TrEMBL record:
InterPro entries: Polysacc_synth (IPR002797), PolySynth_Transporter (IPR052556). This is Flippase. It comes from the Bacteria. It is found in: Membrane. Its main location: membrane. It is a multi-pass membrane protein. Pfam families: Polysacc_synt. PANTHER family: LOCUS PUTATIVE PROTEIN 1-RELATED (PTHR43424). The chain crosses the membrane at residues 12-34, 46-67, 79-105, 111-131, 143-161, 167-187, 207-227, 247-266, 287-312, 324-343, 350-369, 375-397, 409-426, 432-449. GO terms for cellular component: membrane. It comes from Oceanirhabdus seepicola. Keywords: Membrane, Transmembrane, Transmembrane helix.
């Protein structure tokens, strides 16, 4: 199978799996937001934001490194045992640290209990073997793992979560989902003749050392993505936290969608050189611009309607926050192309340095903005730091390829202007958002088709 055919197959497979899982996640968020009060939703989201750092610490960068080692190693059993044992030690230590954090934070007994229950999910997380199945080119098992991980919590939450007093159902549901998904991975691992019996202490030490840069990168990237939620939780009240964090949940949903595009194109970015690389980078730029701008414009104009449609009128005051975050999403979408490219071209140190600078700036600016402006300040500081990160990464990427963001934007400007005009008219006429979305998509892509620009997408998928 040639590279382009493989790219298309992986894109479609990962797209379907990711879309399905993320839609289920969104349904869970919507259900929780409509059943619970804004304040309690804020506490749940804060605990999830904190747990995310310990999740990344437990995974310890093996999602990337582990796959590479499995591909080139004969003793795959040793790698799996080493990774799981490293993760288990980190998970147990993390639970102790989380318990201390729960005692020190002044968010009440309910929050402490939610956080502690979420910490237990780190143990079954150790048995997430998606990196192993990626390494042996059987990613279908990862799709099943992710489906189990979200479907079981959805069923439990819908069945048992009826009011604020049932809030503990949420972390318990996710814990059960991860346990069942982990059991599936273990079963498939053993059914292929592998075992957990092969142990190599030196291999474990080597993997631990090799994984450090990966986990550092993940944590610094996450600081840029969700430190605002944690700081809003610490500096403002639970109600404001609930309003802000739910707006960001929508952005996170969109970010999860674009990850599909970059994950499947990453291998090709690592292999191509010279003119082939420049041509492919230009093609990828056109695809990014084609989707980033219209999604952001639509979300900006109809921010209020989107929040009401999904979460209810009690979240309407987050409209301005979502508008700012939609601009942030557009910048992030464009910036991610530079980020993946830097890693693909062996410039991990430059990437790590940039996100390190951005993470420090994010914490400082968020503190100043949140204490003076509130949740809109958190959104503005996140946007500002993302723009700064994009500029720094773009300057580094220009050493390898020519950036054509402005040129590609000008090419689709007629379609963007028409779409914006239609959206404004629909907004003034108070047309239902459920009708606005499909009509806008048809108009936008219809104009791109007539102009021939849509051929870019066809070329990309070939």
């Amino acid at each position: 199978m040639n590279t382009n055919s493989s790219l298309k197959k992986n894109l479609m497979y990962m797209f379907v799996c990711t879309i399905g899982v993320q839609i289920v996640n969104l349904i869970i968020i919507i259900y929780i937001s409509r059943v619970l009060s804004v304040d309690v939703v804020g506490l749940v989201n804060l605990s999830q934001a904190i747990i995310l750092y310990f999740t990344l610490l437990t995974l310890f960068g093996f999602q990337t490194l582990g796959s590479k080692e499995v591909v080139k190693s004969v003793e795959k059993d040793e790698i799996v045992y080493s990774v799981i044992s490293i993760r288990m030690i980190i998970a147990l230590l993390s639970i102790v640290v989380i318990a201390i954090i729960a005692m020190l934070m002044t968010k009440g007994e309910s929050f402490s209990t939610i956080l502690l229950l979420y910490s237990l999910t780190l143990i079954p997380l150790c048995f997430n073997l998606d990196w192993f199945f990626t390494g042996i080119y059987e990613m279908k098992h990862n799709g099943v793992f992710n489906v189990i991980k979200v479907i079981i919590p959805l069923c439990i939450i819908v069945a048992f979560l009826k009011s604020d007093s049932d809030v503990y159902v949420i972390p318990i549901a996710f814990l059960i989902g991860l346990i069942m998904a982990g059991c599936y991975h273990i079963y498939k691992f053993k059914s292929k003749g592998f075992s957990f019996s092969k142990r190599d202490r030196m291999k474990r030490k080597l993997l631990l050392t090799m994984a450090l840069p990966f986990v550092m990168t993940s944590i610094l990237s996450t600081i840029n993505g969700n430190v605002d939620t944690i700081m809003v939780g610490e500096l403002l009240n639970e109600h404001e936290l609930g309003i802000y964090s739910n707006s960001y949940k929508l952005i996170f949903f969109l970010i999860s969608m674009i990850a599909v595009l970059f994950n499947v194109t990453y291998p090709k970015l690592t292999k191509l050189k010279g003119q082939e690389l420049r041509s492919f980078f230009g093609l990828l730029t056109r695809v990014v611009i084609m989707f980033a701008i219209p999604i952001s414009i639509g979300g900006f104009i109809f921010s209020k309607e989107i929040l009401v449609l999904l979460f209810g009128k009690k979240y309407i005051e987050g409209s301005m926050t979502l508008k700012i975050l939609m601009i942030y999403f557009m910048v992030l979408f464009i910036r991610e192309l530079c980020a993946y490219s830097l890693n693909a071209w062996g410039k991990e140190r430059i990437y790590l340095k940039i996100i390190g600078i951005s993470a420090i700036a994010n914490i400082i600016i968020n503190y100043i903005a949140i204490t003076n402006i509130g949740i809109e300040g958190a959104a503005l500081s996140t946007l500002f730091c993302e723009i700064m990160t994009f500029v720094l990464m773009a300057l580094s990427v220009r050493e390898n390829v020519n950036l054509s963001y402005l040129k590609e934007t000008i090419k689709i400007l007629p379609a963007i202007c028409l779409l914006t005009a239609i959206l404004i008219v629909f907004k003034i006429a108070e047309i239902n958002i459920i009708l606005v979305i499909p009509i806008s998509i048809l108009v936008y892509f219809g104009v791109l088709y007539k102009s021939g620009y849509l051929n870019t997408l066809r070329t990309f998928l070939k």
